[in-house]
């Protein structure tokens, strides 16, 4: 209450009464260095000569923001040799243009960093000594410290780190692995490949595809043959390879892993087991292949084969080959069953028609579907409209007349009318199989496929010339056989009988005509031999059914 004087670090300081009783105010400039402790001693005394002392430590913090970006604090490195080089990066904000950045390792060897704007960078080479180390960054202004930050990093000597496998591909216990998949193993550090021994073994009891004969023609192959295999930890032939950097090795099999088998990988270091893994090989796939050609045996390129009911499709290659199942994962394999295949669907190659065929899948294995013939459309034949109940319509430039008065049509899009293309094809040009014993000499083919017919239809066919003449017509027997596409089997079967009109060079349907679909109206002349004429007449008179007629013709 009776302050007489005040000194700071021995220097007398003027004081003045403060805003409240027993309070005083004073001011003194002190030369505080940045980031260093500065001791302050204060003595106050009264008029009676009594005094009081107080001591303080002041530290002036920096306005500079300094951040060590790399290496991050706590980083660990495996080192070898005598030296190791670290890339050190720091960010500094608020520093003056002339301020300098230094990096220190374990408090010594200050190295000037390259400063690029708000960043500093240095390649610091230090002794490769194991243990924890201090990495410090300093900002100095005219040699005076302005800011600092520090982190700790740990060096572990390579020889003190046990060799470990950090990854393997395929992974341990993987499944559905392809039969040619290479094996790759990666380590936590480089290793001399001479110290490693790798064994690849397989256990399998099942079937594999046998190699085809050299030069075999896929068009004449029923499918790849299967052969039985039995492996019990049998070695897999292949080649091992050390990858660059000596931190990974790979195994490339020179033979297929057996389908459905288990592959075991065993790795030893200096003869001592180090690591083992295993994976399952995919099951035997379902493979389908076929060839698309025109009637002249010319391969059809880039033509679609659509399994439209399940949303799958394939395209033919430069040789006309198409495939399903090759290169597909097990979950995409075709399940056993019968599939409708539409070859060259509408909107495809406009030069050719569309053909619908069945594809039978029995299960795993390889099946060759053989050659599918796709008819080439005659550009001189126009598309014509037809409709349910239309009456007599002239098609194929007048060579085919159909009476649809009592017939109902349903096009693939559900309509009862539409445009059709009808042309005359020889037997070799047909895209479907034929019931044995009932092969037609020719047929009228109609596009698009899949037009269904119900009710009564009648046809009249103008017989084509042979070698420029109709002379052969006079030699024909009284009746011929008519054929159409069976909707269940998608093969050409007898659908009725036609009487020969030798004066008009035509044949006219006689009796019921079992026309289920409009793909074909075929005429079998020479299949209607003398021994069959009695059956043809009986059918025309309604004395036997279509099934009985087909049975007699097949005998």
Give keywords.
555 residues, mainly beta, 10-stranded antiparallel sheet, 4% helix, elongated
Structure in words:
It is a single chain. The chain is mainly beta. 4% of the residues lie in helices and 51% in strands. Helix 1 runs antiparallel to helix 2. The longest helix is centred in the last third of the chain and has 11 residues. About 1% of the residues have low confidence.
Largest sheet: 10 strands, antiparallel
> Radius of gyration, rounded?
47 Å
Helix content: under 10%
Strand neighbour order, sheet with most strands = 32-35-36-41-38-39-40-37-34-33
What structural class is derived from the secondary structure elements? mainly beta
- Number of H/I helices: 2
**Kindly, what is the distance between the CA atoms of the first and last residues, rounded to a whole number of angstroms?**
139 Å
Number of strands: 41
Which segments are poorly predicted (pLDDT under 50) over 5 or more consecutive residues?
217-222
Strand content: over 45%
- What's the pLDDT, averaged over the residues? 91
What general outline do the C-alpha atoms trace?
elongated
Itemize the secondary structure elements and their pairings.
Elements lengths: L2 E6 L2 E2 L3 E2 L6 E2 L11 E10 L4 E9 L5 E6 L5 E4 L3 E11 L6 E6 L2 E5 L1 E3 L2 E9 L3 E11 L2 E14 L7 E5 L4 E4 L5 E5 L8 E14 L16 E10 L2 E5 L5 E6 L8 E8 L2 E10 L4 E8 L10 E4 L4 E4 L5 E4 L12 E7 L11 E7 L3 E9 L10 E4 L4 E4 L4 E11 L6 E10 L15 E6 L4 E11 L16 E7 L6 E10 L4 E5 L9 E5 L5 H11 L5 H9 L1
Parallel strand pairs: 8-15, 17-24, 25-31
Antiparallel strand pairs: 1-2, 1-5, 3-4, 5-6, 7-9, 9-13, 10-11, 10-14, 12-13, 14-15, 16-18, 18-22, 19-20, 19-23, 21-22, 23-24, 25-28, 26-27, 26-29, 29-30, 32-35, 33-34, 34-37, 35-36, 36-41, 37-40, 38-39, 38-41, 39-40
Helix pairs in contact: 1-2
């Amino acid at each position: 209450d009776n302050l007489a004087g005040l000194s700071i670090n021995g220097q007398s300081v003027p004081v003045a009464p403060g805003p409240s009783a027993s309070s005083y105010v004073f001011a003194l400039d002190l030369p505080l260095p940045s980031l260093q402790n500065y001791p302050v001693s204060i003595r106050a005394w009264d008029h009676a000569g009594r005094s009081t002392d107080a001591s303080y430590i002041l530290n002036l913090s920096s306005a500079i923001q300094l951040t060590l970006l790399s290496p991050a604090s706590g980083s660990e490195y495996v080192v070898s040799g005598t030296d190791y080089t670290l890339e050190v990066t720091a960010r500094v904000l608020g520093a003056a243009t002339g301020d300098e950045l230094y990096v220190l390792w374990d408090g010594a060897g200050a190295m000037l960093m390259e400063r690029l704007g708000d960043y500093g960078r240095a390649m610091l080479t230090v002794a490769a000594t194991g243990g924890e180390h201090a990495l410090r960054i300093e900002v100095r202004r005219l040699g005076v410290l302005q800011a600092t930050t520090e982190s700790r990093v740990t060096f572990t000597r390579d020889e003190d780190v046990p060799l470990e496998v950090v990854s393997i591909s395929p992974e341990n216990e993987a499944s559905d692995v392809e039969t040619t998949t290479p094996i790759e193993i990666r380590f936590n550090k480089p290793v001399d490949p001479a110290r490693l021994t790798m064994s690849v073994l397989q256990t399998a009891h099942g079937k594999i595809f046998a190699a085809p004969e050299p030069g075999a023609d896929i068009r004449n192959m029923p499918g790849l043959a299967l052969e039985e295999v039995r492996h019990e930890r049998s070695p897999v032939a292949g080649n091992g390879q050390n990858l660059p950097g000596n931190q990974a090795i790979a195994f490339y099999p020179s033979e297929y892993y057996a389908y459905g088998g288990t592959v075991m990988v065993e790795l030893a270091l200096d003869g001592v087991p180090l690591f083992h893994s295993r994976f399952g090989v995919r099951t035997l796939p379902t493979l389908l292949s076929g060839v698309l050609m025109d009637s002249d045996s010319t391969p059809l390129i880039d033509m679609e084969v659509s399994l439209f009911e399940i949303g799958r499709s394939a395209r033919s290659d430069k040789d006309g080959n198409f495939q399903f199942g090759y290169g597909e994962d097990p979950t995409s394999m075709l399940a056993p069953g019968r599939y409708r295949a539409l070859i060259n669907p509408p909107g495809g190659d406009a030069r050719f028609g569309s053909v619908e065929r069945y594809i039978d899948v029995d299960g795993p294995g390889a099946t060759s579907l053989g050659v599918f013939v796709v008819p080439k459309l005659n550009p001189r034949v126009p598309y014509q409209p037809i409709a349910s109940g239309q009456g007599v319509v002239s098609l194929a430039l007048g060579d085919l007349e159909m009476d649809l008065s009592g017939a109902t049509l349903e096009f693939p899009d559900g309509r009862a009318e539409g445009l059709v293309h009808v042309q005359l094809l020889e037997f070799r040009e047909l895209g479907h199989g034929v019931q044995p014993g009932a092969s037609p000499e020719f047929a009228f083919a109609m596009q698009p496929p899949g037009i269904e017919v119900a009710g009564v239809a009648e046809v009249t066919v103008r017989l084509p010339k042979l070698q420029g003449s109709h002379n052969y017509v006079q030699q024909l027997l009284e009746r011929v056989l008519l054929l159409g596409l069976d909707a269940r089997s998608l093969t050409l079967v007898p659908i009725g009988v036609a009487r020969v009109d030798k004066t008009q060079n035509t044949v006219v349907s006689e009796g019921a005509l079992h026309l289920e679909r409009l793909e074909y109206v075929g005429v079998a002349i020479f299949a209607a031999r003398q021994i069959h004429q009695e059956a043809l007449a009986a059918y025309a008179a309604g004395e036997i059914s279509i099934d009985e007629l087909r049975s007699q013709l097949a005998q």
